[in-house]
Amino acid sequence: MLDYRALEALAAVVSQRGFEKAANILHVSQSAVSQRIKQLEAQLGQPVILRQTPPVATPLGLKLITHLQTVQHLEADLGLHNQATGRVHARIALSADAIATWFGEALGRITDEVDVDLILTDQDKGIELMRGGEVLATLCADGTPINGARVDRLGMMRYRAYANQDFLTRFNLINDFDNLHKAPALIFNEDDQLQHRFLALLNQPAPQNPIKCPSTEGFIQLAATGCGFGLMPEIQVNQSILYDRLIDIAPDHYLDVPLYWHSWRSSGEVMKRLRSSVIKTAHRWLRFEY
User: Fold this and answer.
1) Cα–Cα dist 109/174, whole Å
2) The HTH lysR-type domain covers which part of the protein (predicted)?
3) How much is the pTM?
4) Of 72, 149, 218, 256, which has the highest C-beta tally within 10 A?
5) What is the spatial distance between Cα 60 and Cα 47, in angstroms, rounded to a whole number?
6) Is the dihedral of CA 184, 189, 191, 194 positive or negative?
7) How far are the Cα atoms of 161, 172, 245 from residue 164, in angstroms, in the given order?
8) CB contact at 8 A, 13 and 55
């Protein structure tokens, strides 16, 4: 049987980014924290944490932290866990675009009940973390059901290709975007395929000059200052103070990305309330299929 004091030590070291701070919040010595984790690793026969600065959980360690959080949620339902604060913890995987647009409204309704670690990942990749047991929930573009989990279709996030006037003029894209693939294209990271999919929609090859920008705010800023074109959520651009400096390159062409909420059925009442809040908020912001 797992030693839950050791799991709590593991989770504390990862969340507090160090053994000393973990010991402080657990009210034990630093050596006690280290010893608990060593005993856990001896029991399991493999490491659960990489001892670097800051310490990082191994894939097994992440699964154990998710297991601990699931148990804590169930204990909270019984009124047994963390009675002093009534709070539980949850790791949730989602895209930076969701955080930058509408997810905060959903999360804000329950932050008095839960401490959340938001794990940024591409919307096509979040389901892999869910399948691996590394998170309690994920918001992603894959609706494939996972054993033991619920899946809710939320709606569609519409993406359009934006650039500024100077960029379109310099690359001769004002009236003809047949060579859009030759122009600098903003991508979030190596997993971001939206620009590739949009160019394929226009019967063009992959972008020849990608510019990596792992920031949603930076994406808009770079596009607004003529550095490149990029696929961005329509609702984010409409709310941006740089809205009047961005032009929809191809108004008749766009990408609608479906979004799904996956959550474990055994994750407790707080996560059920978050699920309801996510569905409610998504219906306010996302598009529906007709």
Assistant:
1) 44
2) 2-58
3) 0.78
4) 72
5) 8
6) negative
7) 11, 12, 6
8) yes
Q: Would you state the structure tokens that stand for residue 145, as one six-digit string?
A: 């059901």
Give how many domains the chain has, as a whole number.
Answer: 2
Q: Which of 42, 57, 72 is the last residue of a domain?
A: 57
Predicted confidence (pLDDT) per residue in 190-249, tens digit: 889 999 999 999 999 999 999 999 999 999 999 999 999 999 999 999 999 888 999 999
Q: Is residue 274 part of a domain?
A: no
Tell me the C-alpha to C-alpha distance, in Å, between residue 203 and each of 65, 178, 207, 233, 252: 45, 9, 12, 22, 14
Domain assignment present for residue 200? The answer is: yes
Q: Give the domain range for residue 16.
A: 1-57
First-to-last alpha carbon distance for the chain, in angstroms, is 51
In a 3-state reduction of DSSP, which class is residue 205?
coil
Are residues 188 and 96 in contact, defined by beta-carbon separation less than 8 angstroms?
Answer: yes
